[in-house]
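Milestone 3.1: sequence recovery, worked example.
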């Protein structure tokens, strides 16, 4: 820690916050790191924000003319959405964070985002606008700042407000904790069409739930993606077909495989056998084996 302020206009604490934020952004947010004039928020805000890579992935899933980000935060997801959607609304209830994001928008060249300092659910309740997409990333901290992951524990409670969300947009994207059980999420949400499980270097970072207002499906698509240093690993399967897929069991063969953590989270264990022509070692093991392909 610096022994005394080097700049009279800012405090020692503020300077330390900027230095720490800049360091964090180098890997997580390269566009922010490279852009002059960026102001960084508190450490907790940076920890909770999406990485630039996962934000870009989410932006590739949306389309249309209007999107509302109801839990805008540091604005990384909003930035990516704004490069795909003509009009984006960013709601952030924290006045300080709202001011920071609004300031950074000019540095990043964002001119198609309406930044609003208000609660996203209240904004949605009072607006006459309807959106092609709504994105919501509920806070996974309770009042004591402890981490939580059940939908009912997060703020806002998306299950409680699901009718409102579906009344205002044709499609909803909900980001939840990687710890949330898929069956538990499916039992509480409705109109789920797709689940996306995002890994970064074999660590599950995000679960994305895609809900479509007028398109309830019984066969939900599950897509896993693992971002690694030299590219990405993608695996898709249908939840209903997984249950009916056949998988054979054998002793270890020439090659042994362990699925990445996104696939393990998804539970597509039988689908893997069919997709890659491999066998399982045991019904209750998630190791696979094969002869040369």
């Amino acid at each position: 820690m610096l022994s005394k302020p080097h700049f009279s206009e800012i405090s020692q604490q503020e300077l330390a916050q900027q230095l720490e934020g800049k360091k964090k952004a180098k890997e997580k947010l390269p566009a922010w790191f490279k852009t002059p004039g960026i102001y960084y928020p508190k450490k907790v805000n940076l920890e909770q924000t999406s990485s630039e890579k996962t934000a870009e992935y989410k932006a590739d899933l949306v389309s249309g003319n209007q999107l509302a980000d109801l839990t805008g935060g540091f604005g990384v997801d909003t930035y990516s959405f704004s490069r795909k959607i003509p009009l984006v609304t960013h709601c952030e209830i924290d006045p300080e964070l709202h001011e920071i994001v609004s300031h950074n928008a000019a540095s990043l060249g964002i001119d198609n985002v309406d930044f609003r300092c208000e609660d996203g659910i209240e904004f949605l309740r009072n607006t006459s606008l309807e959106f092609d997409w709504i994105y919501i990333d509920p806070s996974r901290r309770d009042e004591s700042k402890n981490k939580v992951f059940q939908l009912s524990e997060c703020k806002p409670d998306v299950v409680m407000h699901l009718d409102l969300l579906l009344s205002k947009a044709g499609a909803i994207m909900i980001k939840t904790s990687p710890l949330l059980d898929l069956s538990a999420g499916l039992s509480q949400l409705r109109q789920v069409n797709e689940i996306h499980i995002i890994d970064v270097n074999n660590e599950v970072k995000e679960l994305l739930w895609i809900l479509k207002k007028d398109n309830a499906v019984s066969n939900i698509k599950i897509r896993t993606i693992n971002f690694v240093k030299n590219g990405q690993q993608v695996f898709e399967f249908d939840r209903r077909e997984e249950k009916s897929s056949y998988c054979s069991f054998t002793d270890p063969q020439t090659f042994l495989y362990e699925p990445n953590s996104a696939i393990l989270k998804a539970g597509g264990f039988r689908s893997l056998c069919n997709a890659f022509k491999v066998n399982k070692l045991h019904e209750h093991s998630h190791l696979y084996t094969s002869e040369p392909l």
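The longest strand covers residues 203-212. The chain has a mean pLDDT of 91.
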